[in-house]
Design goal:
By secondary structure, the protein is an alpha+beta fold. The chain contains four helices and six strands; from the N terminus they run αββαβββααβ. The protein folds into two domains: about 5-100, Glycoprotein, Type 4 Pilin; about 105-170, Dna Ligase, domain 1 (2-Layer Sandwich).
Length: about 190
């Protein structure tokens, strides 16, 4: 688990990274030491007025957390194919959220998945879909709907989880900006 100070520093780093990229400035650095040197995946989510505006991540990585987060931040802001790229002025009105991936484990029985605690990956090669733990809570989904929506995201039939698809679960440390400052972030 990251400390509150680490979380604030990482969120600040993500916002500064996106701003620098959008403005064509050199990217900031954050030393890959301590909690920031851990290896694994992460997702960066961008929201505007509460609506999704971009979400890109790496499920797993051998790179330091700060490097993964930096790349995901730029991609979420400018390369999510579902949305137009952010512009510098947009950065003042978006909220950022980070999901730091925990270990991924196979699921033998879907009852091992706890809504709000676990994210889900559904695989049926060559298809693969992932939904973060907070998604089911945000949409008010039950377990079957969560699994069906993960299949749909993978490009599979909604019931593929019942018919041979591999199901994996993971936990994620999820945190975002507390927006109490008129849109400037933490």
């Amino acid at each position: 688990m990251l400390s509150d100070d680490d979380r604030r520093a990482l969120l600040r780093f993500v916002r500064e990274t996106i701003a620098a990229h959008l403005d064509g400035r050199p990217l900031p650095t954050l030393e890959a030491a301590g909690a920031f040197d851990r290896r694994g995946g992460a997702f960066v989510t961008v929201r505007a007025d509460g609506a999704l505006r971009g979400c890109i991540g790496w499920v797993e990585s051998d790179d330091a957390l700060v490097d993964v987060v930096s790349l995901c931040a730029i991609s979420a802001a400018t390369e999510d194919p579902r949305f137009p790229a952010l512009e510098s002025a947009d950065l003042l009105s978006v909220d950022l959220e980070l999901s730091i991936m925990g270990p991924i484990e196979p699921v033998a029985d879907v009852r091992q998945i706890e809504i709000g605690r676990h994210g889900v990956i559904v695989e049926h090669p060559p298809y693969r879909g992932l939904l973060l733990p907070q998604v089911a809570l945000e949409w008010g989904w039950d377990l079957e709907t969560f699994l069906a929506q993960t299949c749909i995201k993978a490009g599979l039939p909604a019931d593929a989880w019942r018919h041979g698809a591999t199901i994996l679960r993971f936990e994620a440390e999820v945190f975002g900006e507390a927006r109490t400052d008129g849109g400037q972030g933490e």
